[in-house]
Amino acid sequence: MRASADHILTYARDLRGGGVERAQLRLIRGWIAAGRRVTLLLGSDQGPLAHELPQGVRIVTGMRWRTLPRLVRDAAPDVIFCPGNFYTGLAAWLRLRRRGDCPPVVAKMSNAPVRADHGAVMRAVHAGWLAVHG
Questions:
Q1: Residue 47: CB partners within 8 Å, gap ≥ 6?
Q2: How far apart, in whole angstroms, are the C-alpha atoms of residue 69 and residue 89?
Q3: 129 pLDDT band (50/70/90 cuts)?
Q4: Hey, what domains does the chain have and what are their CATH numbers?
Q5: pLDDT tens for residues 51-62?
Q6: Strand order in the sheet with 105-107
Q7: Tens of pLDDT along 46-91?
Q8: 40: which strand partners?
Q9: How far is CA 129 from CA 14, 33, 56, 68, 83, in A?
Q10: Which helix (H) or strand (E) holds 28?
Q11: End-to-end alpha carbon distance in the chain
Q12: Which of 72, 75, 127 is nearest to 98 (CA)?
């Protein structure tokens, strides 16, 4: 594993908007300003946030869950950034598929770990899901 993250890879379904994707674009701008190389994998580059794509980010479209391991291998990032809870399933899938050959994955929580809108069963499922991710 490299000591620095010169190349950061992150991913999103599309650019239709939402708090997770908007925060992701802000982080990308900051990483580029800090001199990092950034690759953004997208299922589609269409949507209202398309005009907010930072200059200098490498965009790769056509990402699907089946293609994610290959796209990550081809991009060869130093670290993978998972932008929010909605995308943690893809991060888990990627780590399973890549086994020991997966760059470190860093994730941002986009929802509270304990949610008032969940009943007892959903709270238990959500707690289990969070535990799987460490």
A1: 14, 15, 16, 17
A2: 13
A3: low
A4: 7-132 (3.40.50.2000)
A5: 999 999 999 999
A6: 58-61, 37-42, 7-12, 79-82, 105-107
A7: 999 999 999 999 999 999 989 999 999 999 999 999 998 888 888 9
A8: 10, 59
A9: 24, 34, 35, 21, 16
A10: helix 19-33
A11: 20
A12: 72
